Amino acid sequence: MSYKLFIGDYTFSSWSLRGWLMLKRFGIPFDPTLVEFDVDSVANQLSAHKPARTVPTLVTDTGDVLWDSLAIAEELATRHPEAGLWPADPSLRALARNLAAEMHCGYGALRDECPMNLGVSYSSFMPSEATLADVARIDEVWSFALEKSGGPWLCGDYSAADAMFAPIAGRIAGYGLDMSEAAQAYVDRHLSDPAFRQWRAMGEARNVRLPWYARDFDTKPWPGPAPLEAKIVETGTAENANCPYSGRPVTHLFEVQGRTFGVCNGFCQAKTVSDPAAWPQFMALMN
C-alpha cells in the first residue's frame, strides 16, 4: 500500500505537520509532495486531486482523497489497526478522540494570534485575554489526560491526539506562553521528539521565510534541545562513502563536532546540519 501526502511548508504549516506525524510517527510508508505557499494557491496545486483545496491531503493507492487531518487519522487507523493511532484501552481511546476533536475545532484565538512559526522563538509577545483563555483550556485538558493515563504522552503511548497537538506545543514554545509544570513538560516532550525535530530541521534546511507569518517581537533561541555543533564544508574526506539516507555515493560534505561526513544532495546536507541528532540514520555513523 502506497500513500501520497501533500504538505505545506515545514516551518509554517501546522496542519501539514499533523498529517505528516500521523504517517511518520506510526511507521506507515508514504511519499511526501511539497506544496509551495508562495508559488500558487494550494487549491490550484491540488487540482488533480479534487475536491481537496488544503494541506495536508492524502491520496491512497486506490486514488481516494482525504483532505482533512482528522479524517486522515481515522482512515489510517481503520486501514492500519496494528499501527496504534488510537489507544487500545477503550477509556483512553475515548479520551484521545475527545482531545483530537477539541483540537480540530477549537482554540481559534490562539491559532489566529500565534500562527505556527518553527523558525523563531519570541520573548516579548503579550497574549490577548482570548488567547490566554485558550491556553488555560489546553493546560486543563492536557493535565487531565496526563494524570488519567500516567503519560508520558497524553493517553499513554503516542497517539493521534499527540499528533494533533504537536503544532500547539510548537506555538506555546515559540511564543513563550506560560503553562503548568505538567503541561510544560509535555511541550518539552514534543520539542525533544525525533520526528518533531526532523520536521523542524527540514524547515530550517529549506529556509523559507513567508512575511505574512512574521511578527514584530523580540526573539530568543529556540527552546528545544540544542543541536550538535555542525557546519557545511566544501572540501574534505568523508568518513562514509555512501549517504546514510539513500545509500547513494556521497557528494555533499559537512562537519559534526569536527568530524567530516557526507550525503548525496544539498537538502539532506542542510537538514542534517540543522539538527544532526534528530536523524537516526546519520547518528549511526557517529557511533
UniProtKB/TrEMBL annotation:
* Domain GST N-terminal per the UniProt entry, residue ranges: 3-84
One matching Pfam family is GST_N_2
Q: Which GO terms describe its molecular function?
A: glutathione transferase activity; maleylacetoacetate isomerase activity
Q: Which domain of life is it from?
A: Bacteria
GO terms for biological process?
Answer: glutathione metabolic process; L-phenylalanine catabolic process
InterPro entries associated with the record? Glutathione-S-Trfase_C_sf, Glutathione_S-Trfase_N, Thioredoxin-like_sf
Which CDD domains does this UniProt record tie to the protein?
A: GST_C_3, GST_N_1
State the protein's name: Stringent starvation protein A
State the organism named in the record: Pelagimonas varians
Traced from the root, the source organism's taxonomic lineage reads:
Bacteria, Pseudomonadati, Pseudomonadota, Alphaproteobacteria, Rhodobacterales
